[in-house]
Amino acid sequence: MATFSTDALEDVRAWRRDFHENPELLFEVDRTAGIIADKLRSFGCDEVLTGIGRTGVVAVVRGRRSDSGKVVGLRADMDALPIYEQTNLPHRSRVEGKMHACGHDGHSAMLLGAARHLAAERDFNGTAVLIFQPAEEGAVGAKAMIDDGLFDRFGIQEVYGMHNMPGLPVGQFALRPGPAMSSADRFEVTIEGFGGHAARPQRSVDPVIATNHIITALQTIVSRNTDPLESAVLSVCAIHGGEAFNVIPQSVSFKGTVRTLLPEVRELCEKRFHHIVNTVADAFGTTATITYAHDCPITFNDPEKAGLAGDAAAAVVGTDKVRRDLPPSLGSEDFSFMLEQRPGAIIFLGNGDTANIHHPMYDFNDEAIPHGVGYWTELTERLMPAN
Ligand SMILES: [Zn+2]
Ligand SMILES: [Zn+2]
Q1: I need a labelling partner for 295 at 20 to 30 A (CA). Which of 45, 133, 216, 386 fits?
Q2: 137 alpha carbon to ligand 1 midpoint, in Å?
Q3: Is 133 a member of any domain?
Q4: Prediction pTM value
């Protein structure tokens, strides 16, 4: 297993803190991507390409030999969140209203640390493709890079991701084979009635009462239509309609999200959603306009690749420090788009007892850096052994 000098790890920590002080949102990660590309070039990576998926960066590092023909993708995310940081850390965000509250500063810095090691040692037979993606928060950055030809241009055959996890002790990893994180679908509905005076409802078609019945009926998708042993969430999170106490409005709109862990459950929820909204709206004499968008696929860890990822993590921190049966989460992750293209796995890295991700007091735990960098290099060298 590779070892890293204190100086090398101190550099990763310094990069991480620099990214933390200078957070950028979604695709506007120009500074971060620029620094990453400069460093990758200075490490002697064989190719460094920018502007993939607008502001994504890709580096190619060939092993001492590459006749195995293997090409492995390693992915980190670069973007921050629109959150006002509330920590008083020396490296706190210098940009009001923007913050690295999901640890993508750490993810990018750790993959950079691995890139430097891989480019210096090249102790593998094959090609490592290091992927730095924008716009994970908002779930379109991975897709933008894919649409820009990421997998075909570089011949990537399998792909791996890593995310930090608050609550999991530092020095531990966790993952699961199969569905690891949920799909995220989004709906927006407008119920059109016929407005009028509140005192003469018989001359109106009331969209408020229709919407109430629709939202209540939607709760039966999870409770009555899906297998109780399979997970699904349907949350209506906003309703808008009406202005005055004595006016029946013309229309009411609502929106929310659907999360599932299996494609067949996802399909069922969508089908039932349309049926319930349309028929209940019709029963009340209203009409429904539905927008139902597939924001993010199910994050599916290929069982064999998840096993290999777990083995690499175990080589870094010890077998007893890798949990391989982590329960799935109904959060979503846009790395799922990459896992739709090629088999691979996402693993979680212990961030210790910190605030949760997306919280204004959160901070990536620098103590996790040796484990994260170690995982990337170990994984690469194991998947493409030099001998
Ligand atoms: Zn996040
Ligand atoms: Zn994240």
Answers
A1: 216
A2: 6
A3: yes
A4: 0.92
